[in-house]
Specification:
The complex is a heterodimer. Chain A is of the alpha+beta class. Chain A is built from 4 helices and 11 strands. Classes of the chains: A alpha+beta, B mainly alpha.
Chain lengths: 293, 181
């Protein structure tokens, strides 16, 4: 017992380390037999081994028991299983979202690659190539077959069936938009913040109070259909004004001898585009004061 | 089959989806991880949470262990990383954290036992980090010298000498605190 400061070790007593090795089961063969033989006849070493054992037990008592181990591992296992399930669900959801995205975006990409527009699609007019205010009245009419262009002030679109639409943009800048429709049908989507937005047919002036509307002029008749917001329609001859709202389209009566009927070189007379219907009789209102001068 | 081989077998079975093997592997890992955690950070109060987190990470990355026989080293690596992160955040120092007073035995027994436990904890807390890990691994998880060596990256003879030194130091400190084994 050479390591015990309290008592002197006998000459043949094993070292304290050897007793610990015996306690841990690390001694084999002759060493083990010799140590055990010594312990049988040496009470002091037996006491020393007992102390070692008690210290070991005191340390072991502080550790987690089998119950604690089972409890902790079960809890961790439950969390692991839950995490695996969440990951599985998240992966499935991501896969589904990716699939939906591909299915949704594919037609758009295919369309951008030059696919022909469908029957309900619209083609933008070349409004940015229109003359400025100084050239108003001399600008060449835009054609529906031109490539789509979005201008600063607005985006004007014409329905595909109206390929012969004669539409001249007189002004198109941040301050406003003015255009003239000689023949055909044009659908307008007016962005917010545009102060002035006017479209003139040979017989009527359409002033925008809302956002999305269609103006058509066929056979001397002006037709206005509003999808969102409100527009004012001013008759150029008798200065009558109508306020057109969604669900109540406007159509003028065909006055005799108005331009646009049998326009030279223009398309043959056609009837409404489907988005216009004959106007209700009470749509024509008195001219507002701001339009009287 | 020795402890290391038995654990290797459990790891391989758990990898193949054997839930029972995984459960047993984790149950066996609890005292090892607890010993490692408390060896590194004796004053850590939420050591059960840390132990659980280590187990969770071990389960999540079971496939990444190159040598399933070195599962103990893998646990030690995870534990070290986690505890060092916590230490960096909290700057932990002090002695082994106290558990609630034992509720078994009479009131006097409980008080005496609690006092003894406090002394042992304090003495353990005064040991060096590796010495404390070695002694806790030996007595809490009943790990063999070879397993301790694998877990801590030591040789078997180093484990033997460190264990002896740790026990001798512990005994000295316990006697100084009035604890008679």
């Amino acid at each position: 017992m050479s390591d015990d400061p309290r008592r002197g070790a006998a000459e043949d007593c094993p070292k304290r380390e050897t007793l610990w090795l015996l306690y841990d089961g690390r001694l084999r063969g002759h060493e083990r037999e010799a140590a055990e033989e010594h312990l049988r006849r040496c009470a002091r070493c037996r006491a020393g081994l007992g102390e070692s054992r008690r210290i070991g037990e005191a340390v072991a008592d502080l550790g987690p028991g089998r119950d604690d181990a089972v409890r902790l591992s079960a809890r961790a296992l439950a969390r692991y299983v839950w995490r695996c399930r969440v990951r599985k669900v998240a992966a499935t959801a991501a896969l589904a979202a990716g699939f939906v995205l591909v299915v949704t975006a594919a037609p758009w990409f295919l369309g951008r690659e030059g696919a022909a527009p469908g029957p309900d699609e619209e083609v933008a007019l070349t409004a940015d190539e229109s003359p400025g205010p100084a050239d108003a009245g001399e600008g060449e009419p835009s054609r529906a077959a031109a490539p789509p262009v979005q201008t600063l002030a607005c985006r004007a679109t014409a329905r595909p069936e109206d390929e012969a639409t004669e539409f001249t943009v007189l002004r198109n800048d941040e301050a406003g938009f003015e255009a003239r429709l000689e023949w055909g049908s044009v659908r307008f989507r007016v962005p917010r913040g545009v102060e002035t937005f006017r479209v003139q047919t040979p017989t009527h002036l359409v002033q925008v109070l809302g956002t999305v509307f269609t103006v058509a002029f066929y056979n001397g008749e002006t037709h206005v259909a509003v999808e969102e917001g409100t527009v004012e329609v001013l008759a150029l001859d008798d200065r009558e004004v109508a306020v057109v709202e969604p669900g109540a389209p406007f159509s003028s009566a065909p006055p005799a001898g108005v331009p646009g009927v049998n326009t030279p070189g223009g398309p043959p007379p056609r009837h409404g585009t489907g988005s216009t219907t004959p106007p209700p009789p009470d749509r024509h209102l008195d001219l507002p004061p701001k339009w009287r001068e | 089959m020795d402890q290391r081989e038995a654990r290797k077998e459990l790891v391989l079975r758990a990898r193949q989806g054997d839930r029972g093997a995984l459960s047993e592997l984790m149950t066996q890992a609890v005292p090892v991880v607890t010993a490692l955690v408390r060896g590194l950070a004796p004053s850590l109060r939420n050591y059960e949470d840390v132990t659980q987190e280590v187990l969770l990470r071990a389960m999540s990355h079971l496939d990444r262990i190159r040598d399933p026989g070195r599962f103990g080293a893998y646990l030690n690596e995870i534990t070290r990383n986690l505890v060092f992160d916590i230490k960096r955040r909290k700057r932990l120092v002090g002695t082994l954290v106290e558990d609630p007073v034992s509720t078994t035995g009479g009131p006097v027994d409980r008080v005496v036992r609690h006092e003894e436990e406090v002394r042992v904890r304090e003495a353990l807390g005064e040991l060096g980090e590796v010495d404390r890990q070695v002694i806790l691994l030996r007595h809490w998880s009943d790990a063999s010298y070879e397993e301790i060596a694998t877990s801590l990256g030591l040789t078997v003879s180093a484990v033997q000498s460190r264990l002896f030194r740790a026990r001798r130091e512990l005994e000295k400190r316990l006697r100084r605190k009035g604890y008679t084994p």
